[in-house]
Amino acid sequence: MHETILVTGATGTVGNEVIEALSSQNVRVRAGVHSIIKGDRFRVFPNVDLVEIDYARPESLRVAYTGVTRVFQITPFTQDQVEIAKRLIDMAKEVGVKQIVKLSASGADAEPGIQMGRWHREAEQYLESSGVPYTILRPTSFMQNFIAYQGASIVHEGKIYQPLGSGKVSYIDAHDIAAVAKVVLTQSNFDGEALELTGPEAISVEEVAGILSRVSGRTITYVDVPEEAARQAMSSQHLPDWMVDAMLELNQILKAGYGAHVTNTVAQITGRPARTFAEFAQNNAHCFIAE
Ligand SMILES: NC(=O)c1ccc[n+]([C@@H]2O[C@H](COP(=O)([O-])OP(=O)(O)OC[C@H]3O[C@@H](n4cnc5c(N)ncnc54)[C@H](OP(=O)(O)O)[C@@H]3O)[C@@H](O)[C@H]2O)c1
């Protein structure tokens, strides 16, 4: 039977890369997009169809899931992410999906862990007891965060504001998460596994600033922000309290060095080394230079 793989959150950081990775495979791909117009860029891929999914409209899920054989499940960073995850798992089970690959987060199984991890762990446990064959991907912080969240201050001020001290993090390129996802979705021999995915090295934000300075030809400096100032900055951007608390908690453990572990899983599964931050920066240099 021909495989049809649904990717939820397809226009996000990881989803976008997963669609691209699957576009060269002999499978049908359904890009689950929040609104069809946002998925326009996927129309260049002959094996990719667009399907609208709005988690706030559960009836949209049935249309999206019907006929699907495998799912790459990405849930957004929202307060109801666990409910969304459970709803997606229920729908996959109902239509008889034979594999769910869930995007989780590094440290989701830590006890007591942090709130972000506990949300993912609750969804993981629901998946584990669902009866649907599954694989869990647990990546560390994405290199792309330096574009999505720090990009504006890097471009306009030459500064990276982060409350991370000299904490080192084994940042991963979302491209590598997608490369792993492609293998797991098309070879399906990782049933029941939880894969800890990291970049090839742990680096500090100071080192990130040095790399970005080199590739952009500008001086980019790291401003180590006190936690209280970080809280105020996020609150002034009208981020809700639950989100600010969760972000600060994550930053505390990264500052303390808990995000520095390195695994070889990307290389083992894809057959090539995980990308370094320098490679990521080179590939995305245009994102760090003012136009
Ligand atoms: N960032 C990190 O460093 C990191 C590290 C480890 C794990 N993670 C995990 O990665 C996941 C997020 O992945 P990501 O960064 O690739 O996502 P993302 O870039 O934030 O994108 C989220 C996607 O979900 C879609 N979406 C949001 N609300 C929706 C709704 N109501 N209905 C349908 N679609 C909706 C968005 O579409 P629209 O834009 O159109 O709304 C977008 O395509 C989270 O579970 C997070 O915990 C992140």
How is this structure best described in words?
This protein has helices spanning 13-22, 59-65, 81-95, 115-128, 145-148, 151-157, 174-187, 205-216, 227-236, 241-255, 265-270, 277-283; strands at 4-7, 28-33, 48-52, 70-73, 99-103, 134-139, 159-162, 194-197, 221-224. The chain is α/β, with parallel strands linked by helices. It folds into 2 domains: 4-139, NAD(P)-binding Rossmann-like Domain (Rossmann fold, 3-Layer(aba) Sandwich); 141-173 and 198-260 and 275-291, UDP-galactose 4-epimerase, domain 1. Helix 3 links the parallel strand 4 (70-73) and strand 5 (99-103). Helix 8 (205-216) packs parallel to helix 12. It starts with a strand and ends in an 8-residue tail after the last helix. Bound molecules: NADP nicotinamide-adenine-dinucleotide phosphate.
